[in-house]
């Protein structure tokens, strides 16, 4: 509804308003900048001759100029003993077994790769008496606190297969109608 009203006001007396704008006097253009006149002077033969003429005095001075450039010796800025600490990360080879192609070969000490994490979680789940938190921390160069947190909060998935009788019972079960 609002579009119709605005369209009516917009189109009202359009032809008369257009005729009025067309019949107005055109404004005078702004004056040109003085640099535009230099182009006309460049066409004169005196200026062309001056530009193309070679000056022997300047040529001899130019031939006397010899520039030799050398790079300054590179200086190492001394920070006055304020060196950033440089920590060399010790890396260890991963213990991958049969999954070598799936993971990285070296990891920093104190960290483990994804495949190693899944392996140690599975080992701990299957044999918790052998793969204790202390043994895992020593084997993978980890802190005991982190290993305890890892074993507490991360559990690998288990796959359960249902017996065939249970499958039939599940598929043959029909909901009761109320």
How would you portray this structure in words?
- 46% of the residues lie in helices and 3% in strands.
- The protein contains nine helices and two strands; from the N terminus they run H-H-H-H-H-E-E-H-H-H-H.
- It has helices at 2-11, 14-23, 38-42, 45-52, 56-64, 114-126, 133-140, 144-153, 164-172; strands at 91-93, 106-108.
- The protein starts with a helix and ends in a 6-residue tail after the last helix.
Indicate the topology.
Layout: H1 2-11, H2 14-23, H3 38-42, H4 45-52, H5 56-64, E1 91-93, E2 106-108, H6 114-126, H7 133-140, H8 144-153, H9 164-172
Antiparallel strand pairs: 1-2
Helix pairs in contact: 7-8
Order of secondary-structure elements: HHHHHEEHHHH
Ends: how far apart?
53 Å
Low-confidence stretches: none
Average pLDDT level: 77
Question: Treating each run of at least 4 consecutive H or I residues as one helix, how many helices?
Answer: 9
Q: Please state the overall shape, judged from the principal axes of the Cα atoms.
A: flat
Structural class comes to: mainly alpha
Strand order of the largest sheet: 1-2
Largest sheet composition:
2 strands, antiparallel
The radius of gyration over CA amounts to 44 Å
Count of strand segments: 2
Q: Residue share in helices?
A: 40-55%
Strand content bin: under 5%
Entry keywords:
178 residues; mainly alpha; 9 helices; 2 strands; 3% strand
């Amino acid at each position: 509804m609002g579009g119709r009203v605005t369209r009516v006001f917009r189109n009202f007396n359009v032809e008369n308003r257009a005729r009025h704008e067309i019949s107005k006097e055109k404004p005078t253009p702004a004056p040109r900048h003085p640099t535009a006149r230099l182009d006309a002077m460049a066409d004169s033969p005196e200026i062309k001759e001056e530009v193309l003429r070679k000056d022997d005095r300047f040529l001899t001075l130019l031939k006397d100029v010899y520039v030799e450039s050398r790079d300054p010796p590179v200086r190492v800025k001394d920070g006055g003993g304020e060196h950033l600490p440089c920590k060399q990360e010790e890396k260890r080879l991963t213990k991958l077994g049969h999954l070598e192609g799936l993971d990285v070969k070296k990891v920093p000490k104190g960290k483990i790769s994804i495949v190693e994490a899944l392996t140690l979680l599975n080992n701990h789940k299957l044999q918790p008496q052998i793969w204790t938190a202390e043994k895992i921390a020593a084997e993978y160069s980890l802190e005991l606190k982190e290993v305890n947190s890892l074993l507490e909060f991360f559990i690998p998935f288990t796959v359960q297969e249902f017996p065939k009788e249970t499958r039939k019972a599940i598929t043959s079960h029909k909901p009761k109608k109320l």
